[in-house]
Amino acid sequence: MQIDNPLNASPLAFPILECIHIVGFAVSIGTIAIVDFRLLGIGMRRETPSQILHDTSLWTLGGLVVMLFSGLLLFSSDPDNYYLNYAFDLKMVFFLLAILFHYTVHRKVAQRDSPHGKAVACISLALWTLVVFGGIFIGFLNSTLDIHHI
Amino acid sequence: MLLSFAQWIQATDFFTYLRGSGYVYPCILSMHMVTLAVFGGMILMTDLRMLGWAMSSRPVADVVDQLRMTKRWGLALMATLGVLLACCKAEEYYFNIFFRLKLLLLALIIVHALVFRRTVYAQAAEMDRAGRVPGNAKLAAALSLLLWVGVACMGRGIGYIDPPFGIHAQLWPL
Q1: Are B157 and A15 within 8 A, CB to CB?
Q2: Which pLDDT tens digit goes with each residue over B37-61?
Q3: What are the boundaries of each domain within chain B?
Q4: In chain A, how long is the greatest CA-to-CA distance?
Q5: Residue A100: which residues within 8 A CB-CB, separation 6 or more?
Q6: How many Å apart are CA B133 and CA A100, to the nearest integer?
Q7: How far apart are CA B171 and CA B41, in angstroms?
Q8: Which of A138, B55, B134, B145 minimizes the number of CB atoms within 10 Å of its CB?
């Protein structure tokens, strides 16, 4: 069944959504990184990790919501293509892991100033890095690398 | 002269290799985006703190002073990766309107730093003592927000050299 997506009517819609997506993930990943860097002993050391987490969590959530909704709209422009894109699948796996980790282990460790802080910070930064890599590779698998599964 | 430099640098063995490398080029681009997320996010949060919209239970100086070195190293890394990317396709980028606008905004960011560094960013502790953020500091933060979001959007625009816009190389013919 073919449904006309209004997003595909204007050539400007996709790039503008991408810019919103970028600002959304800069705010969410940036705020998470401030907490992670603190857990690693870098940056805002006059605060405890739990103080920073408390002060940034609303912005993290806001950034995630913006990123998620713009991402869904981007996906809706050509779902078949994304569905078949290996990098997109991996990105979604890493994204779910990153979100899950952020709202369980990461949150607990940051709130209680636990001794495992450094390991948790590294895992958090690594997961979000993999999500970004997945996003960039979506575009490259389609055009240059050409290794679709199927 | 600038154009012949662009043609020369992208024709060097190193950048010819990077351009055709398959995986290495997208990995550099990905790392450029990771640094944007991590350190660009920190820049936005610093500006939002100055405007009183974020982290307002922390002193301004705690946010501005303590994130300064982290942002500086991050910016150096982001810029290095950006230069590598630009040199890979220097000739194309020379004509790319979004690349030119991005450089213009980056130049404005340098001007912004020269204008506001001493009068605003070095005065964070003073603002905490006074208990209020002065108007020129809020202006500096708002301008910084606009400039950096603009840089990110222009960076995304660089990828649209071909359609949908199709304005590449047409606004500035040789």
Answers
A1: yes
A2: 999 999 999 999 999 999 989 999 9
A3: 2-158
A4: 58
A5: none
A6: 37
A7: 33
A8: B134
SS3 B44: helix
The pLDDT tens digits for B112-163 are: 999 999 999 999 999 999 989 999 999 999 999 999 999 999 999 888 755 4
ipTM score for this prediction: 0.89
Where do runs of H (alpha helix) occur along chain A?
13-39, 49-76, 79-83, 86-101, 107-112, 117-140
Å from B134 to nearest chain A CA? 22
Nearest CA in chain A to B40: A26
- How far apart are alpha carbons B90 and B3 in whole angstroms? 8
Mutate to test the interface with B, among A16, A18, A20, A23 (most CBs of B within 10 A): A23
Which chain B residue is nearest to residue A46, measuring alpha carbons?
B62
Token pair for B21:
């490398």
| pTM of the full structure | 0.90
